[in-house]
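Quick entry between incubations.
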Amino acid sequence: MIRVDKKLVTVKLGKASMQIAILGTGTVGRTMATGLAKLRHTITIGTRDVAATLARTEVDATANLTFTEWLAQHPTVRLAAYSDAASASEIVVNATPGGVSLAVLRAAGSSNLAGKVLIDIANPLDFSRGFPPTLNPGNTDSLGEQIQRGFPAARVVKTLNTMTAALMIDPGQAGTGDHTVFISGNAAAAKETVMQLLATLGHDDIIDLGSIETARASEMLMPIWLRLWEALGTPLLNFKIIR
Amino acid sequence: MIRVDKKLVTVKLGKASMQIAILGTGTVGRTMATGLAKLRHTITIGTRDVAATLARTEVDATANLTFTEWLAQHPTVRLAAYSDAASASEIVVNATPGGVSLAVLRAAGSSNLAGKVLIDIANPLDFSRGFPPTLNPGNTDSLGEQIQRGFPAARVVKTLNTMTAALMIDPGQAGTGDHTVFISGNAAAAKETVMQLLATLGHDDIIDLGSIETARASEMLMPIWLRLWEALGTPLLNFKIIR
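Done. Structure below.
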């Protein structure tokens, strides 16, 4: 179902598969690892404690697998400590819950993120007051900006945070797949790299919102996204910008 | 360009044209008045001071007309004080800037709003820190909820606040016109009335988000809406929920 421009994929794969670290072992991290490994990139999933992650007995909601069972089904994917994953990669994906993202990135290490394309796909949702969660920081700051301020040498690109994990790697799972993905970031070249990566994942309507400050606008889609999930009874929904 | 179900319009017009008050004399109020008058509803525009409004010399950005010039082109539309407009109508539309909406509704009068369908199409944007504006109250409250709390006997329905005025009355001006309008409110019958009104205006993808609390979710679309206007160079854009 992935609606990929086959020529583009060939060009990208032909050119160079990339070393990509995915920080986060949950559904979002596993899904991104699956989609990017399928495109023949070299994937290292980063976690706090490798042994503890492999010993986990809880299963994820989507595939009903423990992390170790999931990993066994994805033999090309490697598991490593945050810092090892980041240092081994040219692109780092933040796929952790927004509330812990800054701590995870500190564990990955500033120097391991310097100069790297850091793709932030997280949302700073605060569930402490129940459902629906509120956004923290909210509408005068964003997680994307906090990450860019905290790691000034990284080239942060906010994207993919406005859809459920399944659609990130397979847009065709919602409607005909014709919907929009937003990007925000200060570095034009980093955004260009991410746009090419998004295109290979099947995204063909990519809107560049502007600087990383615009991440607050895409993060603020979460409240209606959550309400739409409730109203429509499925997370397989996305925003298409009609113009 | 209005993509209206002709049969539905005939039914509605055949049944009963409605008395509708539109509070607000700006572009949004004028546009809504134009669209609803075209559907043969009886429109009264509400303002603070009728004589002062008629004496204004400033023109609106869209049509380049003073209010009096605009009114002359719309002979079926009446101008009245907020309270007269509200008391004469069965439906009241809040088309004022969000920052003054509560004061305007107090001027319209609680008793004139009691039992009425109160359609809130405003957004609580705060421009005091420049562009882009922030949302006030933001993500733990909304203007829609503030209005419902302030006027508990009114039946508040939040809708149309996620698009530019031109699209409210003519969805076909963006793309093929196939995009989404959201509604939020506590009263099912009031939402039903509003959905029928929206359908006659040409909206054919209406999503009921739930109670008036969900107004905070639709109001939080404003930040990305403003960024998209900048990025795409046109306000003739809207969200379509693909599912």
